[in-house]
Specification:
Blueprint: H1 18-26, E1 32-37, H2 40-59, E2 71-73, H3 78-83, H4 86-100, E3 104-109, H5 111-116, H6 120-131, E4 135-141, H7 148-163, E5 174-178, H8 187-198, E6 203-207, E7 224-227, H9 234-251, E8 254-255, H10 264-278, H11 281-306, E9 310-315, H12 324-334, E10 337-343, H13 349-362, E11 367-369, H14 374-378, E12 382-385, E13 396-398, H15 408-422, E14 429-431
Parallel strand pairs: 1-2, 1-3, 3-4, 5-6, 5-7, 7-8, 9-10, 9-12, 10-11, 12-13, 13-14
Length: 432
Amino acid sequence: MATEAKRLIFRRTNCSCAMPGVWRALAYVRGAAVVFHSPRACAHIARTLETGAHYRSIARGAAEERSAVPLFVSGIAEDEAVFGGEELLRRCLDHVVMNARPEAIFIVSSCVAGVIGDDAERIAEEAAEEYGIPVIALKSHGFLDGEYFGGYLETMRLLAENFMQPSAEKKQGRAVLLGDCGGASGEYVREVRRLLAALGVRDVLQFPSYLSLAELKAVPAAEFSVLLGREGDAAHEKEVRDFAVLLTERFGIVCAGDIYPVGMGETLRWIERIGALTGRAAEAEVLIGEERTAFDAVLAAGRDALAGKHVVLAVGRSVRYFKPEPICRLLDELGVVLTGVVILDAYLPDDRAEMVRRVREVSPAPVTAERDAEPVYTAADFVLTTHELANPHLRQIFLPMLPVAGRRGEELLIDCMRRCTARRREGGVLYA
């Protein structure tokens, strides 16, 4: 029987509404309080996301433990869904001011509030005048006005517009990271901070989630901004770049732009770009040499263990999430023979054609459909795959959905390949 892939997912778009995106952007902005004008379930969903992030942080051994800001919910129920919930929102705001004493309140309306026509912006204006603190109603209404990332970006813009003023002078050695990518203690941010520190940039802020309302005032004095992310979603990348341009126009913060330090090649380009933009070309040249030397040592050890091994690449992700070029280049540098590329049954026709085209441009290895892949799999020493394969006899290495920042991702993959080929037993899955 042919080997099949597990958990093939055809969904192409984000299915979360704007509210969790707003919450993620504000969750650790100390001094803020967030009010969901929604049924209770909406707040539960958003809070659950933060609980998951908290436990991932513990698993990573995060050096700094953060507590989320207060999240309140007005609790729209059947009566309010029929007759309106504005009075319910007013009572909720009274409760927030009395119990949390925030420096600012952010109101996030659900699709229910949008459908019944509650005017949260007017209520926010009245509350700001009454309480003497900023009360800001976001324009997003759950699923009615976009999705998760739209809410996140709207919050970034509101914070910049309401809590930042142009700085008289720039502070040398200060950078601002734009985005999240696993949080302040995540591997991506830790790697970016390590590289920036090697360039002499040690005053690094992360916007929006990991600054207090008071600390937001320090952002305009930053020399430059760094976009956190991974190439893949062109629309989202453009929106973040547009926000970085807004910071450039309003505050003179230079944007590194359009390069992400993911994979060895892109990381070296990223270092060179940062050095050129910030007048640190000499430091960048030294760092590039150090990174190459460190990676070459790992590559040499990997080549000793892996040269001549036969591998199959099984791909089931679109080019948006998986690019075959870095993998094929790495295998070639290691002397590993790519004997075939299997295109899994997880593609729409256009996505399949694009992946086949990209693979054939970078490798002479034959391209095989999943239904014909069994002899290709069994002839290989191991399989690099984007989906677990339902064959317990194959040695598999599962390629991560989100590549690791810097050279670390490729180093982890080399280590996985070495361990996979050294295993005594057949079968099993290693996660790169």
